[in-house]
Specification:
The protein is α+β, with helices and mostly antiparallel strands. It is built from twelve helices and 14 strands. The structure holds adenosine-5'-diphosphate.
Length: 498
């Protein structure tokens, strides 16, 4: 491939900085008063520097007979056979002036020609046969001929040699540059083709992975669903046994059935979480919004963890700021976020500790944006809920990782806390589905603060103009989230909240 690029000798017009070389020819022309023309191998004119022959040419061109002769002279100069490596060819014209045609050679082949002239080879007299042209004023012609510089062959050869060696240097360095850049381009093209090939392979692999991912999500959804049905029976029958519907149980039997019930319930929670996660991954989370009182949302979530907190002697405190307005959210999803945060707070706070849950209104930059929205200021308004505990805290290097699926700070086989490591990942996705965020700050040994922020206006006016996935995403209407959207774009994403 590289060889063919180097074999292909470029035309003179590509090798020469034509403008620059024209300037050089002009200096030569002005210095010696003799014209210089440069043609490429195909006869294309690249340079035409006229010197002192302008008046003579226009006079001869104005008379029919000499005009014909002038035209055939031009053709002859253009087409005169010359060969690479051979000396310049002399052409004498019909008024006794002379031209020299020198070959331009590049890489051993003819690249063009330089036509040097006209000049007078000596003292010249108007040829006698021109007297037959009636219109021609021989006296005037003689005067014009005298304006053409006289040059000996030796002088002309020297000037031509100078010009040709200058041309050689220019061509040679341009040729080198051109070849270097061609080789560069060829290697870049090669690298580009390699990249394209790798890219295609990656795209194929990506497509296959996506398909596998989809199959995995489907599989998990189906299996989880199928597991739930028998599990609800196990839980139901355990409850019935405990209620004595199949006869009184002895204390030992009660203990066993209680354990079956407890384990069954936590298995049900786990299956629910796995189902949520597979829905999130396949982009099938349905957000059903309705107006909700923040204080009610907090109360509802607290009622879920109250028994556990009481059992562990943990104080629960709420602080709802005045003027916190109702917000349009999917109440079930928000309740589940709060239950998860509060459940964790209870789980990771030693006995006698305290959990505070606060709700405020906050002015915030819209999630995924680095500036406040000046055109729709209502988009800067957020409901902020903080869940603050006095628990064990989270090491700084784990603060972001706890939002990854299945991640637990203590994942040893001897860990003392139960759980799956799915809760926060799901909670963060639910927050993102509302175009909100879930973040954490913590200090080991002192406690953690989880902050949920929910926008009062989730969609901008422009989003409303362009419905999400064909659904009109107004707050009161349900809409599905579309898996992994980019921050600020419709839908939800794990990254949007990070
Ligand atoms: P799970 O609680 O089921 O393990 P989560 O996703 O809810 O799963 O939490 C992931 C991990 O984050 C927990 O295992 C724990 O290590 C850490 N974590 C979450 N909340 C707290 C908290 N309030 N205090 C200390 N660590 C926490």
């Amino acid at each position: 491939m590289t060889a063919s690029i180097l074999d292909d000798v470029p035309p003179l017009s590509e090798l020469l900085d034509v403008e620059g070389f024209r300037e050089i020819c002009k200096s030569f022309g002005e210095l010696y008063g003799i014209g210089i023309k440069l043609f490429d191998a195909e006869g294309g004119k690249l340079v035409d520097v006229r010197a002192g022959d302008a008046h003579l040419s226009s006079y001869l061109f104005g008379i029919h007979e000499t005009q014909v002769q002038l035209t055939s002279l031009v053709n002859q100069l253009r087409n005169q056979e010359i060969r690479a490596g051979e000396p310049a060819v002399i052409v004498d014209d019909f008024v006794g002036l002379r031209y020299k045609i020198a070959p331009i050679v590049n890489e051993g082949s003819l690249a063009g020609r330089v036509i040097f002239g006209p000049y007078a080879p000596g003292d010249i007299k108007v040829p006698a046969e021109l007297a037959k042209h009636k219109e021609l004023d021989l006296y005037r012609l003689q005067g014009l001929l005298r304006t053409i510089p006289v040059a000996s062959e030796k002088q002309v050869d020297r000037i031509l040699a100078h010009l040709l060696s200058t041309l050689d240097v220019v061509i040679h360095s341009s040729y080198k540059q051109l070849m270097t850049s061609r080789v560069h381009i060829a290697s870049i093209n090669g690298a580009f083709e390699d990249l394209e090939r790798v890219n295609r392979t990656l795209q194929d692999a990506n497509g296959q992975l996506k398909e596998l991912d989809r199959l995995k999500s489907n599989f998990i959804a189906t299996v989880s669903h199928e597991l739930r049905t028998p599990l609800t029976s196990v839980i139901g029958y355990s409850e019935m046994l405990l209620e004595g519907m199949a006869g009184e149980l002895v204390p030992e039997q009660r203990d066993y059935v209680k354990t079956i019930l407890e384990k069954g319930e936590s298995l049900l929670v786990l299956i629910g979480q796995v189902l949520d996660l597979s829905r999130i991954e396949s982009g099938n989370v349905l957000i059903m919004k309705s107006q909700a009182e923040p204080a009610e949302l907090v109360k509802l979530a607290l009622s879920d963890v109250l028994p556990q907190a009481k059992k562990r002697n943990i104080a629960l405190e709420t602080a709802i700021a005045d003027g916190v307005e109702p917000i349009s959210v999917d109440t079930d999803k928000i309740r589940r976020i709060l239950v998860n945060l509060l459940g964790n707070a209870v789980k990771f706070t030693p006995e006698g500790g305290k959990i505070t849950i606060k709700a405020n209104i906050e002015e915030s930059k819209p999630v995924g944006s680095d500036r406040f929205d000046l055109f729709e200021p209502e988009r800067n308004k957020y409901l902020r809920i903080d869940v603050i505990d006095t628990g064990i805290g989270i090491p700084e290097d784990k603060l972001e990782r706890i939002f990854d699926s299945f991640f637990q700070v203590d994942n040893s086989s001897t860990r003392q806390f139960g759980g799956t490591g799915l809760g926060l990942s799901i909670a963060r996705n639910f927050a993102a589905a509302h175009r909100g965020s879930l973040t954490v700050t913590s200090s080991v040994g002192a406690g953690s603060t989880f902050t949920l922020k929910l926008p009062y206006v989730a969609e901008s006016a422009s989003d409303k103009a362009a419905p999400v996935d064909g659904l009109d995403a107004t707050p009161e209407q349900p809409h599905t989230t579309s898996g992994r959207a980019t921050p600020g774009a419709p839908g939800m994403t794990k990254t949007a909240t990070r």
